[in-house]
Amino acid sequence: MEQKKTKTRRRIDWQQFIITVLGTAIGVALTFVVSGMIDKRNKEKAQRLTAIMVIHDIDNTIDIFKSWKEKEENGKALLLYALERKDQVEPIPGDTLLNVLDLLVRRKAEYHFDTSKEQIFNSDADTWQNLDNMKFIDNVQEIFYERQCFLEMANTLEWFRAPIPEEESTQVVINGGWNSEEEYYEKIWAFLRDKLHERRVAYYINVSHARLSTLTEYIDKFTLLNEENKFIMGITDREMEDYVNSLNNNGIALTKAALPGHWLFVSKDQSTEYDFRSDNSYTFTNEGTSSYTKTPYWSGNYTLRTSYKGTWALQKDSLILTPDYTTTDVLVDSGGLVVEENGEEALKDWLNSYKERMLDYYRSHADQGERLAVKARLDSSKDKMEWSFSDGEVRYLKRK
After folding, report:
1. How far apart, in whole angstroms, are the C-alpha atoms of residue 46 and residue 42?
2. Residue 303: which domain range?
């Protein structure tokens, strides 16, 4: 009897063992299946995020090309206007004169792009495998290659590069006038008139149509390729909108209670301070040091301090600043200048005329209804503020 019970128990134990093994095997299988499903979903998510990131970067590139085209279109008539008047002695109007000079000045790396997204795309070893769409990859690589080709062309070829070096124009503006605004503009016009007679400057102005045509070709080509990218990757406008919103939603919303105080933005040789008050008024102060200059009367650096008052308002996620240029005050600090022999009076006259020219500039804009709108957010400490401008520029201000 006891032996029969032992056999029955062994049979039951063996059945339990089989059930346990089967259960374990099924569990392992389910784990692999679930893990595979999760990996697949993660891969698809990574694939779409990578595609959206690259497509957004290309959309930004197209917007930059459009801004360059708009500047070219707006400046074309002004440059031709100046070129037609190169033989007249009388200066063209002051504001027009300075705008013409600005359009002809060649600055360092005038044409450039943020290539951080391109570097991420090209440096990720799994990018091609994750995206799993060679047509999309080919389109993106073509755009990135063409973008680099454009930069090399625009920053090296004579018909694209502005003809007057920035250092040369800066010296002219600084040394332009000593006694009056009229003399200041006369000296700048004399410089610019000589430049307009140079073949290289005239050539640059006359081939504006070629620059416009080239910019249009890039805009059209990149737009077509990127629309194809969105189509073949199944990226909807809603997904692009959500992605852009996710980029803009970092940080904490700016509130009327959090803004008041002193905020400082520092860039190279200048600093800008905003004193925001709870009554929706503010004071703007900018202080900058000039580069080293040398004239027959003095040499060294001077510091320019400009301030004015204004009002501020919040509209959703935007900070609106409305300046009151009638309150502008200008101070030119000559402490960093070394006066040449018998140059004291010339320096004094220049300081006074320079201050008056700056005041006249701001007063002339007092009735033009200017205002600045930026998207503004705070970090978690509420002591750092991000400003996003419509042209893509981003600034970070710190509470002082």
Report:
1. 6
2. 254-399
- Backbone torsions φ then ψ of 87, nearest 5 degrees: -95, -5
The residue type found at 165 is: P
Q: At 280, list the tokens.
A: 């929706």
Number of domains in the chain: 2
> Residue 332 maps to which CATH number?
2.40.128.280
Provide the token pair at 50: 């990578």
Same domain assignment for residues 314 and 378:
yes
* 308 and 385 both lie in a single domain: yes
> Which two structure tokens, joined as six digits, stand for 197?
């007679």
Residue 387 in contact with residue 257, Cβ under 8 Å? no
Helices assigned H by DSSP within the chain = 2-84, 94-104, 116-123, 127-131, 134-154, 166-175, 181-196, 199-206, 208-232, 237-248, 344-364
Instruction: Please state, in angstroms and as integers, the Cα–Cα distance from residue 102 to each residue in 78, 87, 188, following that order.
Output: 11, 20, 12
Instruction: Tell whether 189 and 283 lie within a shared domain.
Output: no
> What is the reported pLDDT for 9?
54
pTM above 0.70, yes or no: no
Per the DSSP assignment, residues forming a β-bridge with 165 are 106
Question: Amino acid identity of 33?
Answer: V
pLDDT at 68: 92
d(CA 216, CA 238): 27
Instruction: Note whether residue 240 is domain-resident.
Output: yes
- Residue count (the chain): 400
Gap between the Cα atoms of 380 and 375, Å rounded: 17
pLDDT in tens, 261-294: 999 999 877 899 999 999 999 999 999 888 777 7
Residues 253 and 377 sit within 8 Å (Cβ to Cβ):
yes
pLDDT (mean) for 63-76: 91
Reported as a single tens digit per residue, the pLDDT across 178-213 is 556 677 788 888 899 999 999 999 999 999 999 999
pLDDT confidence of 73, banded at 50, 70, 90?
very high
Asked if residue 16 belongs to a domain, the reply is no
